[in-house]
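Entry:
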Amino acid sequence: MILDDRDMIADALLMQKQLIHTYMMAERESANSHLREALHDLHGEEEDLHAKMFHSMHQRDWYKTPVAGRQAIESAILNWEQRLVQNPELRA
C-alpha cells in the first residue's frame, strides 16, 4: 500500500490528536509540579504542531470543516444553557 501526502499528513494529524490527549491526561494527574510543568510544555508544543498540520490540510482542501447553520448554532447554545441550569458549578 502506497500512501500519498494527504494520507500521511492525515495519519500524522490523528497521532497529534492522540498525543495531545495523552499529555493532557498525564498533566492533569501528575502529583509532581516539575513533571506537570514539563508535560504542560510538551502539550503546548504538540498543540502548535497540530495547528500547523491542520491549517496545512485545510488550505489544501484535504480537511473539510462544515459551516454551522443557524439552527445548529442555536441548538448548541440552548444545549449549553440547559447544562448550566442543571449544573451551576460549570459557571466557574
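The mean pLDDT is 92.
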